[in-house]
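Posted in: Protein Modeling Q&A

I'm a second-year student putting together a small comparison for a lab meeting, and my supervisor asked me to include a predicted structure for SDR family oxidoreductase. I've never done this before, so apologies if this is the wrong subforum. The sequence is pasted below exactly as I got it from our records. If anyone can share the structure token output, I'd also love a short note on what stands out.
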Amino acid sequence: MLEGKVVVVTGAGGGIGRDFALAMAANGARVVVNDIGASVAGEGNDAGPAQKVVDEIKAKGGSAVANTDSVADWDSAQRIVQCAMDTFGQVDVVVNNAGILRDRFFFNMSIEEWKAVIDVHLNGSFYVARAAAPHFKNQGSGRYIHMTSTSGLIGQTGQANYSAAKLGVTALSRSIALDMAKFNVTSNCIAPFAWSRMAGTIPSETPEQQARLEKFKTMETGKIAPLAVYLASDGAAGVSGQIFCVRSNELFLMSQSRPLRSVHHAEGWTPQSIAEIALPALKPNLYPLERTPDVFSWDPI
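Accepted answer (user: helix_wrangler)
Welcome! Here is the predicted structure, written out as tokens:
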């Protein structure tokens, strides 16, 4: 489905990103495998993981090149896309997958922990997507695939930085979809459920948390890749501005914010009338304070 395409996959040295890179190559794409080779917290630098994935692709007859630039810096992100241009002469697909975690309860979170996660997930997605935009405009086509999370779409404890960044990515994706539509460019998000290095860092102190992690271990990272390949293909030309979720063999189209219910008062509202009239009318539709496992409460199929 991707014959002749050039795909950039960030954070592709392992986990979901590696599966994306391998699947894109298996479907005919030439791949830029980007990974700085850092820890889950974003520390360190090692060219080995990216090169290992490149070697896997080449061993199967595919074409790929390793890149170790960071998504979290504007100039560095430019080099990621330029690597595709220098090596393959074009860029057709950007998969914004790179990510780190600095989990901490909000009341204990440091400025550094906040900024580090925002820089990689939200700023990094913008930087790499923006670097590819002129090329997509000039050729009149392109595909953006961004990784979001139910931590942002629904909620999770101890992840204010990650949740804010991931929900921000969905708004970024929709804005890209709107701004780039006239150039035949699409932009979509995927929220994955899968066992990976990042999932392995989730705290598991209580029996409930441990049971949740055991469920995660049954969800293979490779289950996410087929959707990414489809969204990268010409066949997905009419799909843009959407948020998908993959949970083992389940594929979801996620809702987006729209008016849910309204109340009108001819004289305008006062604090008292809001308390006495508006809130009682709206209360049945208020969202409960739920976390991801509360909403996705059934075992994966």
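A couple of things worth pointing out for your meeting: The two ends are 27 Å apart (CA to CA). The mean pLDDT is 92.
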